[in-house]
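To the team - iron/sulfur cluster complex, inputs and output below.
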Amino acid sequence: MVRRAGKEASRLPKKKIGFYWASACGGCEVAVLDIDENILKVAELADIFMWPVAMDYKFSDLEAMKDGEFDAVFFNGAIRNDEEEHLANLFRKKSKVLVAFGACSCFGGIPSLANLYSIGDLLNRAYLEAPSNDNPDKILPQPKFSVEEGEITIPTMYNRVKTLNQVVDVDYYIPGCPPTPEQITDAVLTLLTKEPPEKGHFFAGEKTLCDTCEREKSDKSITEFKRLHLTPPEEIDNTKCLLEQGIICLGPITRSGCDNRCINANMPCRGCFGPAPYVSDMGAKFISALGSIEAADDEETAKKMAEQFYDPAGTLYRFTLSLSLLRGNIKTEERTE
Ligand code: SF4
Ligand code: SF4
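Output:
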């Protein structure tokens, strides 16, 4: 963890760092504030030159910086449109080290679930069909629009939500939705004060979550899936593995390093730390893992269990659809990327 903060760190020349958000909910930016008093150690070591949630800046400020002027940039959010791709390229150019920060940037995250739909489906839902809309003229956003004063433009949405490393070269990864304060502190201070880790390093665990989970495990097979919010609490033993009790928990295929926060709160893992080191596709791997514990010995039980597995795409790829071998729904000709 952090070893060279405090007096020793204050003798080092100050570095320049930045934070940026693309297609994100803002949670990752706020998570930086959760490092509490450790922000003082960061402030001793570095000046924060860009941080949209906390300070105003203009794209021209970034363009005016020298190439490689940032020592490190922590980029959260997925790439959903041409402006975000442009900014990702610009930050790549201006920074010695580019870090994918949070599940959206590392794996596509929640925004990548939009890859299950076409652009047309998404715009119709958001601007025409949602019950809270008031859009009698059925106006949809246009990338360019001419008014008397000139042309107004907004970013153009891509057909597919991408991870940061699907558009630029990325040095390091901090997974999580959002990352934990301990991870953020470790990553920022390590990159500012120590020998950098090997390129591609994840500031997280190297095992699966199950490997670090202290719940009692057995070789019990399951014959039904339960949905947590529909299951009376007295039917769940909070000392035992949730998956063995029929609650879908992605611990067997998810990277560790979150301090088991959901599991300790009696909630199943949803996979926000992304695939464990040996897993390439979370959905395929989990179905394969289920095969060894599911006891659907006859067709009727198998059918019942398949019906009980609610929203498989949203459950298995909640944070990683951009990374998956499926890459979303290929149903539409609109999809070109
Ligand atoms: S990783 Fe989670 S907290 Fe961070 S921007 Fe994405 S949805 Fe928000
Ligand atoms: S499946 Fe979930 S509850 Fe069971 S051991 Fe793994 S992380 Fe723990």
